[in-house]
Protein: Regulatory LuxR family protein
Amino acid sequence: MAEVVRGRDKELQAVAEFFDAVTAGPVGLVFEGDAGIGKTTVWNAAVAQARATGRVLVARPAKAESGLAFNVLTDLLEPVFDDVVADLPEPQDRALSIALLRVEPGPDRLDQRAVAAATVSVLRRLAANGPTVLAIDDLQWADPPSARVLAFALRRLAGLPVGLLACVRRGEPDGLADDVVRSIDRCRRIQVGRLGTETLRDLLEDRLDRRFTSRAMARIDRVADGNPFFALELAEAGDDPTLQVPDRLRRIVSDRIATLSDQARDALLVVAAAGTVEVELLPAAVLQEIAGIVDLHASKVTFRHPLFAAAVYDAAAPEQRRQVHARLAQLVTDVEERARHLALAAAGPDAAIADLLADAAEHARRRGAPETAADLVEHASALTPNDQADVRRRRTIQRAEYAFHAGDLAVARETLLAMLKEEADGPQRADALRLLGEIRYLGDSFSEGIQLLQEAMKHARGDSALEAEIELRLAFGTLSTADYDAAADHAHRALDLAEQAEEPALLAEALASVAGLDVLVGHSVDNVKIARALDLEDPHRPASFMMRPSRVAAYLEFYAGHLAASDRLLEALRRRTIDGGEETDLPYLDGYLIWSACWRGDLPAAAAYADEALDAAIRTGSESLRSAALGFAALPPAFAGDSALAESRAAEAIQLAGSTGRRLSVLWASWALALVALAQDDPKAAHDALGPLATDHAIAEPIRAFFVPDEITALVGIGELVTAERSLDQFEEAAVRMERSWALMLSDRCRALVLAAHGDLAAASSTMQAALTRCADLELRFEVARTYLMAGQLERRCRRRGAAAEYLGQARDLFDAAGAELWAARTRTELARLGQTRTDPAELTPTEARVAELTASGLTNREVAAKLFISAKTVEANLARVYRKLNIRTRAELGARLSRHP
Structure:
C-alpha cells in the first residue's frame, strides 16, 4: 500500500508538472532539504508514479558506498543491461561491462568516454520506447565516476523523453551532484521544508495508531522543528523529549536499536557495513523485526535513514565491525569492494592485504576513479608493516598523486608534508618534493613551487628518469611565470636525461616539451620530434595535461592558426581528462578551447568552456588554477560585450596572478579589458590595459604577442604613431619569419590603420585589401569581422560608400551571428553614418537569410554550420530569430514561406 504524503501539496504539484514535461525532455526535478525532512517520501511517491507511466531506473546511493566506482550507474543500468547490450557497438559494450563489473578491465585503463557513450546509447534506446526516468535518492552520495558519466549523458539527450528525479541533502558535500543537476537545462529545484504542527500530528497518529495531546505535540515539535523523521523517532521513544537534536536523537535511535534481538542487531550491522545486502541473506523473522528501520527495494535491504546506519555501526564494538567486514570480504566479488572490506577487517599491519589494496587502487584508477584509488592506497599505506618503510612511503606518494589528479590538492599536500617529516632521503624524498612543488605552483605560489622542485633535484641526483620528471615540471613552472628562455633550457635538460633513462613515455613528454618551447623562443617546428613524441605517447600514463605530447601538438596547431585541428586534439584530451576524473587539468585544458572558440566566433561554446574551467578551479581550491581560469574566462564576455562580467573576471585574475606568480594570466585578462574598451571606441582605456605588457624586445613568436595588434590599434587611436609603428615592425617581422598567416593579416590591418592615420588613404586602402585577401583562408572569424569593420570605416573615409556599406554589412552579420553585441552595435553606428540602418525589424540579415535558405533546402543544423563556417549553436540562434521575424514555428513552414517569397 502506498504511503500517504501529507502536507506536501507544492511538491506533489511539482511532480505532476514534471511528468507533464518529461515527454519533451530532458527535464529534471530535485528535492532539497535537511536530513529526515521528507524528501524521500515525496521522491518515493514520484517513483511510484513513474513506474505507472513509463520506465524508471532507480538508485539509492549510501554514504558507505560513495567510494565504490560506478556504483550508482550499476544500480541504474544493471536491470536493463541484458535488454539493450545486444545493440551496443563492441567498444561501448565492453566499457559498460567493465564499469558494471561484468568483466575485468584488463591491463589498459578503462575508456570512460566509451562508458559515457554507452550510457547515452542505452538511454536513447530506452527513451525511444517511452518516457524514461532516472530516479536517484541522496544524489550527493553518488560516486564521482557515475556522476561524471550521468552529467555527460544527460547533456546529450536533447528532445528525448528523459527525466531526472533526485533528492539532495542540504548540509552535506555534494561531490559532483551539482554537475549532474546542471547538465539539464530545464531542471527545477524544490526546497522541502518543515511540516506544520497539525500535519505532524496527523502523520504521527496515522503511523503510530495513537493520539497525541496538544501539549505532547508541542514538546515533540519543539525538538523536531517540523522534521517528520525526528518527530517520529521522538514520539516512538516516549518520555519527555527535552534535549536537542541531533545528539539526543542519535541516543534515541541507539536506544531503539538496543531493544532488538541479537540476531536483528547482527543483521543490521551487516547492512550498515555493506550499505546494501540481498534480501535472501537475512532470515524472514529478522526482516520482520527490523521492518521499521530498513526498506526493501528490488531485492535489496537498505536503511530507511542514515541515522539508523550510523547508530548501528557506532554501537558495535571494533571487533564486531572487523568480523563483519571479514565476512563481507568473502562474499563480494568486486576487487575494490573486497579490498575495502579486508582493510576494515584488519586488526593491524598486514603485508598481503596491503598489496591487495594497492592493486585495487590501480584497478580503480584504470576504471577512471582516482578518488577511489586514493582512498584504497591510503588503506594500503596504513596496513603496510613497519619493516617495509620504503613501500609505505611509495604508497603515500601514490595516494598524493591520485588525490592530486582528482583535484583534491589539499589532501595531496597534507599527505606529502606528513611524509616529508620523516628522515628519508634520496629518490623517494625527491619524488615527494617533485609532486609537492607541482602542487604548490598549481595551488598558490609558483615561486615556492619552483624552489621545491629545485630542492627535489638535489635529492634526485643519479636517477635520470626522476631528474627528467623534475626538469619537465620546472619547464612548465618557469613558462607560467613568462620566462620562456629558462623554460626551454629546462626542457632541453629534461630531454637529455630522458634519453638516458630509456623510458619511452617519459621521452615522449620531453621531446614534445622541447618542440613546443623551441617554437615559443623563435625556432621553426621540429616535426620529427613531434611525430616521435606522439608515437611514443602513453595515454594511460598518469601525467599532467601540460606534459602530454598531444597537448603540445594541439598548441602548435593553434599557434599556426589551425583552430579546427587544435580543437580536435584538445577535445580528445578533454574527454580523456573528464573520463579519468582529473579535475586539476581542466582549467588549463579549457583555456585554449575558450580562446579558440572566441576567435572562431562561437561565443556560446566559449562561455560553456569558461564555466567548466571556473567550476573545476573552484573545486580544487587552487588560487593559481583560478587565476588561469579567470584570465581565459574573461574573454567570452569581453567578445560578447558583457563589460561588467569581463571586467570583474579580469580584475580577479590579475589580482590572483600577483599573489600566485602566474604572470601569464595577466595577458588574457588585460586583453579582455582592452577588447571591451575597443568595442566601446575607447582607445585610451585599451592602451591602459595593454601598455604595461609591451616591450621593446624582438618578438620571438607571434602567439606570445597576440595582444600587440590591439595595442597598435589603441596607440593609433590616441595618436602615438611612432610607438605604434615600432611595435608593428616587431610583430610583422615575427609574422613573416614564423610564416603565421593570421599574424600577417593582422599586420596588414594594423599597417593600413597607421597609413590612414598619416593621411595616406590610397596606400592604406591597398594594404587593407591585402588584409582582406588573407582573411579568406583564416579560421579566426571574429578577427575577420573586425577587419571588415575597419575596412568599411576606411572606405567611408575614402568616400566609397558602396564598398563601405558592403564591408560593414558583412562585419555586422558576423558579429550578429557570434552574439557580439558591442561590436555589432558599433558596426551599426558606422552604417548609420552611411544611412544604412534597417527600419524593418522583420527584415532578415544576410546571415539569417542564408541560414533560412539552407535549412529550407533540407540540410541539418550541423550541415548548415559546416557550409557557413559557423557553429551549430549559431545556426540555432539564427533560426530562432528567423522564426520569430517570420512568425513561424517549424521547418515545414519555413520551406513553404520561402517557396512563396524567396
